[in-house]
Design brief:
By secondary structure, the protein is an alpha+beta fold. The protein is about 20% helix and about 10% strand. The protein has one helix spanning about 5-15; strands spanning about 35-40, 40-45. A hairpin with a 2-residue loop joins strand 1 (about 35-40) and strand 2. The termini are far apart.
Length: about 60
């Protein structure tokens, strides 16, 4: 693959690109809204302990 194609592919799928807003419809059991806090070189959100072992989805609102 040429270097130009590699660069285009990386740009196309790179996170943080301005794709605009999308509408998502999610069905579930409970919802909490929290602010992500700094934790070293990443972010962290604390969830209720009874959610441990459950499958969750995180959606960035802004």
């Amino acid at each position: 693959m040429s270097e130009e194609k590699k660069i285009k592919k990386e740009k196309k799928y790179s996170p943080g690109t301005g794709r605009g807003k999308v509408k998502l419809e999610v069905y579930g059991e409970e919802m909490v809204e929290k602010i992500v806090r700094q934790s070293g070189n990443s972010g962290r959100v604390y969830l209720p302990p009874d959610w441990v072992g459950c499958r969750v989805k995180i959606i960035r609102l802004n």
